[in-house]
Specification:
The chain is mainly beta. It has 1 helix and 7 strands, in the order H-E-E-E-E-E-E-E. It has a 7-stranded antiparallel beta sheet.
Length: 128
């Protein structure tokens, strides 16, 4: 990813970002990693779908389906999405993703909060 931002926490002010991040880490039962190890985005696979979780953005992904077209099998990409916004991603085994599901009253998600994303295919850290 180009244009990777410096560390931030959605809906947190610069004055409270560290305390807020520590609270999110506690909610996720994770240790708050040092600044150089904080994760901005991951790509991971779940039930055959390829998903991307990026801090400050809604979960999005692609599902590949094989369909028959004109007597041949063709692979089609179908976008998948979830309305939950990613608040933080914690490295580990497995990686843990925290969203605003059950934090913001009007956000419904098919994912638990927090949820385990396994070992991602790619990891992007915040810029230094």
């Amino acid at each position: 990813m180009s244009d990777v931002p410096k560390f931030f926490l959605p809906a947190s002010s610069p004055d409270t970002v560290e305390a807020d991040f520590a609270s999110v880490a506690q909610m996720a039962h994770c240790a708050a990693p040092e600044l150089s190890q904080r994760v901005y985005s991951i790509a991971y696979t779940h039930n055959g779908e390829e998903w991307v979780a990026t801090v400050g953005q809604q979960l999005r992904g692609v599902q590949r389906r094989k369909v028959r077209s004109g007597g041949t099998s063709v692979e089609r990409e179908c976008p998948v999405a979830d309305p939950a916004t990613v608040l933080a991603i914690f490295p580990g085994s497995p990686y843990i993703v925290v969203t605003n599901h059950r934090i913001a009253a009007n956000v419904v998600s098919k994912w638990e909060n927090p949820f385990m994303a396994g070992q991602p295919k790619s990891v992007t850290r915040f810029s230094a």
